[in-house]
Amino acid sequence: xxxxxxxxxxxxxxxxxxxxxxxxLDEARKAGVTKxxxxxxxxDDYLALSKIASLHHDVxxxxxxxxxxxxxxxxxxxxxxLVELAQSDKVxxxxxxxxxxxxxxxxxxxxxxxxxxxxxxxxxxxxPVVVHTRSAKQxxxxxxxxxxSTHGILHCxxxxxxxxxxxxxCGYYISFSGIVSFKNAQDLRDVAKxxxxxxxxxxxxxxxxxPVPYRGKSNEPKxxxxxxxxxxxxxxxxxxxxxxxxxxxxxxxxxxx
Length: 257
Ligand SMILES: [Zn+2]
Fold this sequence. Notes:
The protein has about 260 residues and is of the alpha/beta class. It contains 10 helices and 8 strands. The chain has an 8-stranded parallel β-sheet with strand order 1-2-3-4-5-6-7-8. Helix 2 links the parallel strand 2 and strand 3. Helix 4 packs across helix 5, helix 5 runs parallel beside helix 6 and helix 9 packs across helix 10 (about 240-255). It is globular and about 40 Å long. Zinc ion binds near residues 96 and 205. Zinc ion binds near residues 6, 8, 39 and 96.
């Protein structure tokens, strides 16, 4: 069993499946994937995600606004609105939110405020927050700490060991994508090795960042076992065991208040 904790189900390249998402999900199920969290990036995709989730017992989704979105979209994500959207049982998390100074430093205040509102909503509905951070680790940590956020995932982790330890101390889980399988990612593997197994999650972040041996191709949930394989090699356990542990971690995270 494998859980893809972060896939953009509304953005996948479905050309190999005649445009049919169900077929892509079935392929992933054949590869052992038993759960999918579809991730929202703006406030328009949640409708499509809620429809997908209503059709599949093994699909849930998040609601939120990505920090690379336009400030006008971020502004729509008030705490009240996020709380309202997050009522459904099929909404498993808030996000993806966070800070991205790599793509833009024009709207730092808007990004920070929007991130904080996602955390406020996450606390109100008792569901974790999915955090993206790029070139902004200091401010990301500051907000997590200042808002006393303890229930979250730092997704697609690419930071250093100190950052890993700091978010783990806050109570967060750390999710690795296919990057951990890349040839040039030895530093990241050295960090990953030190993340306690019981705080580890896996994701594809599809359609981006396909793991080796599919690097450069369009990514999809069926490749998440390859992320598990890269981590299993570091921990010296079987791929199956890593898949099971990370799936159990995700279940525990969803139940935490
Ligand atoms: Zn994402």
